[in-house]
Amino acid sequence: MKRLRLTVQILFTIVTNGYMYGFLNGKIYRGSLKYACVPGLNCYSCPGAVASCPIGALQALLNQRGFHVPFAALGVFFVFGSLLGRFVCGWLCPFGLVQDLLHKIPIFKKKKRLPCHHILKYGKYAVLIFLVCTGSMFLFGGFAKVPAFCKYLCPSGTLFGAIPLLSTNEALRGQAGGLFLWKLGILLGVVLLSVKVFRPFCQYLCPLGAVYGWFNRFSLVQIQWEKELCVSCMACKKACPVDLSLQEISRSPECIRCGKCVDACPKRCLHFCGIRTKSTKS
Questions:
Q1: Could you tell me the residue ranges of all domains in the chain?
Q2: What pLDDT does 274 receive?
Q3: Could you report the per-residue pLDDT of 19-62, keeping only the tens digit for each?
Q4: DSSP secondary structure letter of residue 226
Q5: Parallel, antiparallel, or unpaired: how do β-strands 144-145 and 223-225 relate?
Q6: What does the pLDDT read at residue 21?
Q7: Which of 135, 224, 255, 266 has the highest Cβ tally under 10 A?
Q8: pLDDT given at position 253
Q9: CA atoms within 13 A on the CB side of 160
């Protein structure tokens, strides 16, 4: 499961951000595929991005003059959420892959959560409400509305978008100022914290994770628990990178369906959507 997930993460990142001409020339792809959204964070401004980010698309629709219900973006959330839930976060998000790789660096004593996790975990809902939604509707820069999350917070956009563009485009480097330094500081903070804490951005700040978390209880992809086979060894809780109990696995908004609990179960009583390997003998 571990190797499979890593392979899927890498391949999906390459496929969705594989426009090499953009990286080499500092140009953003603007073809027809950019009208489509991929499931995870995928910065529109990334030179290699061949499609759009659903959070970016939602903000673009909310940035329009007047108020319009963003049916297109809501439809994207409903389709991916009802099918996959936070499986998207665990398997299909490029910035999730970056955090996973950083957490593998063998320094610092690793932690699953930050202190006051029970409060901090609601930060991603605050970001969704106040930056993505309210900020995009009412925050103005000059005469235009501002995509507040993308402009002031998103570390994925800084890593995959701003840094590659600035490295190849001299004209843009001349325009980089305090805002870029602010975003770079946020990115560095997330990078350093990711070495010690499992996916801090996903757990505490990602508005896309907040949206998909609402779908976890009824999405098509689930991790199922066969209670009659369980011996309550708690191997699944020990393996869970976000420290969920057996009852919370898959159903909790914090579960990213990474599959580590499935791998750890000695009785194979946890499995994805009816796919179960042979149980081990007692």
A1: 2-213, 223-272
A2: 52
A3: 999 998 888 999 999 999 999 999 999 999 999 999 999 999 99
A4: -
A5: unpaired
A6: 92
A7: 255
A8: 97
A9: 30
Q: Whole-model pTM?
A: 0.93
CA distance 198 to 119: 17
- Distance CA(248)–CA(257), nearest Å, equals 11
Mark 36-62 as b/e (b = at least 16 C-beta within 10 Å): ebbbbbbbbbbbbbbbbbbbbbbbbbb
Residue 229 structure tokens: 């086979």
Task: Return the pLDDT at 276.
Answer: 52
* DSSP output for 21-80: HHHHHT----SGGGGSB-SS---TT-TT-SSB-HHHHHHHHHTSSS----HHHHHHHHHH
Average pLDDT over residues 172-194: 93
3-state DSSP call for residue 131? Answer: helix
Pick 223-272's CATH classification: 3.30.43, 3.30.1490, 3.30.70, 3.40.50: 3.30.70
pLDDT of residue 280: 43
Residue reference for tokens 């998207």: 88
For 274-281, what is the mean pLDDT?
48
The Cβ of residue 8 has, within 10 Å, a number of other Cβ atoms equal to 14
Structure tokens at 277: 């390997």
124 vs 227: which has the higher pLDDT: 124
Number of residues written out for the chain: 282
**What is the structure's pLDDT at 73?**
93
DSSP 116: T
* The pLDDT value given to residue 279: 46
Look-up of token digits 């490295």: 167
In sequence order, what are the residues at sequence separation of 6 or more whose Cβ sits closer than 8 angstroms to the Cβ of residue 247?
Answer: none
Residue 281 confidence (pLDDT): 39
Helices (H) and strands (E) in the chain, counts: 18, 4
Cβ within 8 Å of residue 2, ≥6 positions away? 259, 260, 263
Q: For 220, which DSSP code?
A: S
